[in-house]
Structure prediction request, 136 residues.
Amino acid sequence: MKLTNSQLYQGREAFQRLLGEKFPVLTSYALAKLAFEVNERLKVLEVVRNGLVEKWGTPEGSGFRVKEDSPNWKQWIEEIETLMSEEVEVKTGKVRIGFNVKAACPSCGKVIDMPFWIEPREIMALEPFIDMDGLG
Prediction:
């Protein structure tokens, strides 16, 4: 599947939360494979992004920062937008996720199917990576 660097970057936190949930073994395996591939791409993206911060920013503390009032702001924005709009090929396809996850019942402790609760903003960030069973 083709994704932009921006989609990868925006989905990283929601994806990490998703990896903390319990799913059936094949879903967990598919998520782990996708996470590995996405994390490798994010490492490269972070190296390039940090290089742009060093290129256009000014030293601040132990690193660099590009300030909005900097004369380099426009160049920084142009280059970061170009970087983030770049398409990358992710070989692992979307992962299908059900509406329920295995979880311990709060009252009896038995492992049962429980509704999978996720915030709409997380679904928006995860949309490029997952399909929810029963949804369009």
